[in-house]
Amino acid sequence: MRIQLDENIPARLCRALDSLGHEADTVFSEGLRGRDDMEVWRAAQAASRFLVTQDLRFSDPRSFPPGTHHGVMLVRLRDPGRDALYERILATFSAIDVEAWHGCLVVLTERKLRVRRPLPPAARGT
Predict the structure, then answer these.
(1) Which residues of 72-111 are buried (b: 16+ CB within 10 A; e: fewer)?
(2) How many CB atoms lie within 10 A of CB 37?
(3) 115: exposed, middle or buried (C-beta count within 10 Å: 0-12, 13-18, 19+)?
(4) pLDDT of the chain along its 126 residues, tens only?
(5) Residue ranges making up the domain that contains 13
(6) How many beta carbons lie within 10 A of that of residue 49, not counting itself?
(7) Could you tell me if 53 and 72 are in contact, meaning their C-beta atoms sit under 8 angstroms apart?
(8) Of 19, 6, 20, 9, nearest to 88 (Cα)?
(9) Does the N terminus or the C terminus of the chain have fewer Cβ atoms within 10 A?
C-alpha cells in the first residue's frame, strides 16, 4: 500500500511500514510541512496514497465519502504521544491486511478499529 504520513504522525513509522512491504512517505519529505490540510489531502490523492493522520477534519464522511479517495486512517488515542502512536499504528499495519482499506475511512483508537467502507453501487443508486 502507498501511505502518506501526516505531520502529526511519527516520521520514523516510514521505515517500519516500508519493512512491512508498504511504500510510506511523509509530509516532511514531500515539502508539505505546515501546509493547509487540503493541500496535504490533494497531494496524497494525487500520489494515490492512503493518508494516516490525527486531523479530525478528515473524519467527516460527508466531506470525504468512502470510495471517492485512496483511503484515510484517523488515529484517535487518549494519550497520543509519539511512542504510543508509533506502536499502535505499527501493530495495526502488522496484524491486518490493510490492502482492503483502499477507499475506506479507518478510525483507530486504543481498543478499536472501525472501517467505513464504500457503499456498494446498488446502495449508491448507480
Answers:
(1) bbbbeeeeeeeeebbebbbebbeeeebeebbbbbbbbeee
(2) 12
(3) middle
(4) 999 999 999 999 999 999 999 999 999 888 788 888 899 999 999 999 999 999 999 989 889 999 999 999 999 999 999 999 999 999 999 999 999 999 999 999 999 999 999 977 665 555
(5) 2-124
(6) 22
(7) yes
(8) 9
(9) C
Q: How many domains does the chain have?
A: 1
Residue whose cell numbers read 515539502 = 31
Q: Cell triple for residue 45?
A: 490523492
Grid cell 501526516 — which residue? Answer: 6
pTM score above 0.70: yes
